[in-house]
Amino acid sequence: MQICYNCNAADAPRIVSEARLPPPYKPDPAVPEILAPRNAPGLGTVDFGAVAIQFLRNAYRGIGPYEKEKPRTNLRLIANIQDPSYVLVAAKAETGITDLAQIRQKRWPVRILTAGIGGDAAGILAYFGLSRESITAAGGRVGNTAQDRENFDVAIGGGGDMTTAPEWRIWTEISQKYDLSFIQLPDDLLTKLAKEGEQERGIIPAGLYRGIERPIPTVVRTGTAVYGRADMPDDFAYLVAKAMDEHQDLLQWRHLNFSYNVHTVWKGYEVPLHPGAARYYKEKGYLK
């Protein structure tokens, strides 16, 4: 099984699809080893895993990070567990930036931090007539290095609940370390991001991070997919789907905001549901 805390990010669907051996362990100082155990010697190939639904969908379709590869049509969904993420935009309060339009209007050299997964920083900047090239030409920069995390004016990206999860911890860190002003994006931009990113409109709840003092309309995505390959035995996929349902109590005691929704657990966009999992959901009446 490939799991997020022994994280291989966009490589995860490739590892499962190709039945690769477990990759080398990559220590992360922010993640205790108990959450990311080292791969033991002699392990067999990886047969199933858990990954953000967008990675699974894009790998299946051969788009995004996988656009130069063949679609991985042997991938199959077992369960889609809810796991919310929000598009976030914030500026250091000391900059006085309350609208990204100010950057172009005043031609400030601005330092942009691309923070967390998702968020479509390039698309958001483009809406305001900005790009990495134009920002660099004006004396600013766009990046996500250790230096960028200390010396930035505006942060753009995706974040979930306040946690040390590798993909989101940057928002936990910077919101605690700096006074941030969270910025609401224009309504038409949110509609565009929702459509093009195949996400949905939503609300950042007040208090999600330090500095979010009101509910803020944004774009959201949700879903951590438990998945495998088409050659997975039906009985095994059935048992995994059954176990996820019968042990929902384990989700509520995690450090991440996981939840089980009977209306969406079997949905994975174009990624087919494994027949074994489909049999379980039909028996329970979740899948009509």
What do you see in this structure?
- The chain is an alpha+beta fold and 288 residues long.
- It has 2 domains: 9-83 and 222-284, Periplasmic binding protein-like II (D-Maltodextrin-Binding Protein, domain 2); 85-220, D-Maltodextrin-Binding Protein, domain 2, CATH 3.40.190.
- It is built from 10 helices and 10 strands.
- The strands form 2 sheets. Strands 3, 4, 5, 6, 7, 8 and 9 form a 7-stranded mixed β-sheet that branches.
- α9 packs across α10.
- It is globular, with a radius of gyration of 20 Å.
- The mean pLDDT is 89.
By oligomeric state, this entry counts as: single chain
Question: Which shape, going by the Cα principal axes?
Answer: globular
Mean pLDDT level:
89
CATH architecture heading of the largest domain: 3-Layer(aba) Sandwich
What is the secondary structure topology, with strand pairs?
Blueprint: H1 12-17, E1 49-52, H2 53-61, E2 75-81, E3 85-92, H3 101-106, E4 111-115, H4 121-127, H5 132-137, E5 141-143, H6 146-150, E6 154-159, H7 169-177, E7 180-182, H8 187-196, E8 200-204, E9 216-221, E10 224-229, H9 234-246, H10 275-284
Parallel strand pairs: 4-5, 4-6
Antiparallel strand pairs: 1-10, 2-10, 3-6, 3-7, 3-9, 8-9
